[in-house]
Amino acid sequence: MLVLGIETTCDETAASVVRRYGDGRGEILSDIVRSQIDEHKDYGGVVPEIAARAHVEVLDHVIARAMREAEVGFDRLDGVAAAAGPGLIGGVIVGLTTAKAIALVIERPLIAVNHLEAHALTPRLTDGTAFPYCLFLASGGHTQIVAVLDVGNYVRLGTTMDDAIGEAFDKTAKLLGLPYPGGPEVEREAERGDSERFILPRPMMGRAEPDFSLSGLKTAVRIEAERAAPLSQQDIADLCASFQQAVVEVVADRLRAGLRLFRQRFGGPVALVAAGGVAANRSIGRALQRVASESGTALVIPPPRLCTDNGAMIAWAGAERLARGMTDMLDVSPRARWPLAGKGAAA
Ligand code: KG4
Ligand code: ZN
């Protein structure tokens, strides 16, 4: 089964062709990602209007390249998938409308994929991970702990009350004068910093419910930065290290709570899986490894390229849905907000 996947929900324009074999294995035939970081850099964050326009300009070329590299013609596709949300609505409209046009012309099914579901199903593409598993999704827009029970069956165990973890990294970077996107910059600075110099809060630590709250931590960094101003290079490194250490400890504690809840409700889990750009952070990765081994759980972190936004995850989620006959009508609407699952709800 061959599926073309299109991703335009944020600042990456991406397209990919993925093959799903009858036994459930997947293979990436092409995976083209065109990042808009340069367009947004001057603004310190993604500007929705600029993002939508940039998607319009490059999407056709990105799709053409994905098809060329996969060495398949449109007539060979079994379905066309696009991320229909959640995300910046202008970009979502561009990707979904393009997918509808292709599906209409080649007379194949359209699959409207939830972007979060695509992150959630990626370990099945990269590692063949079996259901059920516990997902830690941490990106610039989302921070959730989710029980992944089956395709289309997700239970949210925990989420953030305010900022996403990636957002907290980005905002911390911005207030310290580091460029966007801030996550990798903060990680780099933290390597030569003293993580014990600044005493920062560990919000939500010790609570039974595996939820997060990060805006207080970000504010605490701001207060410390103002107190230490003007900041030397070493001050910046120490603030980054102290911030990252606080996040690492919070993540480890929240995941322990998440795994506990998962076990109570569903038994298992077979694996702890991380996805989203933040999963590329090595200190966080090591914390995940500690939590997983403590609880005798396997840890799966897809390669960084497939942790951050990409087209292959959309094509793969489309293929998983198509294999189960879960397709969509051409009048399906793009959605700015589209929760993967309500809290505690099994559906
Ligand atoms: O999943 P992603 O590519 O895009 C979405 O937000 O959907 O995640 C991007 C986020 C940004 O906030 C970025 O700062 C963060 O992931 N990030 C990191 C690292 N690499 C990317 N955060 C911490 N450490 C990193 N090494
Ligand atoms: Zn994402």
Structural account:
The protein has 2 domains: 141 residues, ATPase, nucleotide binding domain (Nucleotidyltransferase, domain 5), CATH 3.30.420.40; 172 residues, ATPase, nucleotide binding domain (Nucleotidyltransferase, domain 5, 2-Layer Sandwich), CATH 3.30.420.40. The chain starts with a strand and ends in a 24-residue tail after the last helix. Strand 2 and strand 3 form a beta hairpin. Strands 3-2-1-4-5 form a 5-stranded mixed sheet, with helices on both faces. A 5-stranded mixed sheet has the order 8-7-6-9-10, sandwiched between helices. It has 347 residues and is of the alpha/beta class. The radius of gyration is 20 Å and the shape is globular. Helices cover 45% and strands 19% of the residues. The structure holds 5'-O-[(R)-(carboxyoxy)(hydroxy)phosphoryl]adenosine (KG4) and zinc ion. Zinc ion (ZN) binds next to helix 4.
Record the SSE blueprint.
Elements: E1 2-7, E2 12-20, E3 26-35, H1 37-40, H2 48-70, E4 79-85, H3 89-106, E5 110-114, H4 115-126, E6 133-138, E7 143-150, E8 153-159, H5 165-175, H6 182-190, H7 215-228, H8 233-266, E9 271-275, H9 282-294, E10 298-300, H10 304-307, H11 311-323
Parallel strand pairs: 1-4, 4-5, 6-9, 9-10
Antiparallel strand pairs: 1-2, 2-3, 6-7, 7-8
Helix pairs in contact: 2-3, 4-11, 5-6, 5-7, 5-8, 6-8, 7-8, 8-9
This protein binds 5'-O-[(R)-(carboxyoxy)(hydroxy)phosphoryl]adenosine and zinc ion (ZN).
